[in-house]
Structures are given as structure tokens and as C-alpha cells.
Design a protein that fits this description.
- The chain is an alpha/beta fold.
- The two termini are 23 Å apart.
- It has one domain: STAS domain (Transcription Regulator spoIIAA, 2-Layer Sandwich), CATH 3.30.750.24.
- It has a 5-stranded mixed β-sheet.
- The longest helix has 18 residues, at 42-59.
- It is built from 3 helices and 5 strands, in the order E-E-E-H-E-H-E-H.
- It is globular and about 30 Å long.
Length: 128
């Protein structure tokens, strides 16, 4: 099974040039990752929940990884969604101080170090 990538960019509110978060979905042999960026709000939470609902039927028992390295803000709807996913076993990737603070606001635990995550790609080697 190969890796699938998707980029979602949708306008929000009545601001003509304002865009919601951008995110990628990476599927790998043992993990499925949402790689998120920007400010996340209730609209984003609904979109992420729908995308995860759709993907989860294909993902099976793979680990859900929520990469918030480039997320700048989350509202209560997103915090609640991430909290439910965390309670069901989701893991977080947080490569910045702000991202670690956001994870701590969801988990209510210190984010002391990054856990090693399974790759969300399948390496391919070609011999000539």
C-alpha cells in the first residue's frame, strides 16, 4: 500500500483572503498522520473529524499521529476533538515550544519528549 497525500485549503468566515488550516494526511504501514498548520477552529475540527471518520475505516489498527508542530492556536472544539482522540490512543508530534504547549493543554500532562513514531511512508528501494 502506497502513501496517499491530500492538501485541504478552504476559505473560512467572511474574510476573502483568510484560509483555514492546511493539512496533509499521510498513510503508512503502521501509522496514519495528520500534519496540521495554522490556527484551528470549530470548522477545522468538523473537517478533521469527517476526514478521520472516512479514513479510519481503511486505517484499521494503525496508530493515529496528530502532528501539531506548525499549529499556532486551537479553540475548544479542536481541543475537545484532540482530547477524544488522545483518550482512544492517538499520539502527538510537537516539534516546537508552542506545539508542546498546545499538546499539554489537550492532554493535561507535561510533554517532556517526542515519542518515536512509526513512519507514515513505505520506503522503496530500487536496484539497478
Amino acid at each position: 500500500m502506497g502513501s496517499r497525500f491530500q492538501l485541504r485549503v478552504e476559505p473560512i468566515g467572511k474574510l476573502p483572503n483568510k484560509y483555514m488550516t492546511r493539512y496533509y494526511m499521510h498513510e503508512g504501514p503502521t501509522a496514519f498522520r495528520f500534519e496540521l498548520a495554522g490556527d484551528l477552529d470549530a470548522t477545522d475540527a468538523a473537517s478533521l473529524a469527517q476526514d478521520w471518520h472516512t479514513a479510519s475505516s481503511l486505517v484499521g489498527k494503525r496508530t493515529l499521529i496528530i502532528d501539531v508542530t506548525f499549529v499556532t492556536e486551537i479553540d475548544e472544539a479542536v481541543r475537545s476533538l484532540f482530547g477524544r482522540w488522545y483518550e482512544r490512543g492517538a499520539e502527538f508530534a510537537a516539534g516546537s515550544k508552542r506545539a508542546r504547549e498546545l499538546v499539554e493543554s489537550v492532554t493535561e500532562r507535561p510533554f517532556t519528549h517526542e515519542l518515536p513514531h512509526a513512519p507514515t511512508y513505505r520506503p522503496r528501494f530500487f536496484l539497478r
